[in-house]
Amino acid sequence: MRKPRERKPRTVQYVKNSLKFKANEGEDVVSIQLGRKKYVVPVKVRFLSTDGYLFLSFPASANLFQVAEDGLVPVTTDEAAQEAFEKLRSRKARGKKAVEQVSMPSELASALAAIPPGFKLGYGPDGTPRLVKTRTRTKK
Question: What is the pTM of this model?
Answer without folding.
Answer: 0.40
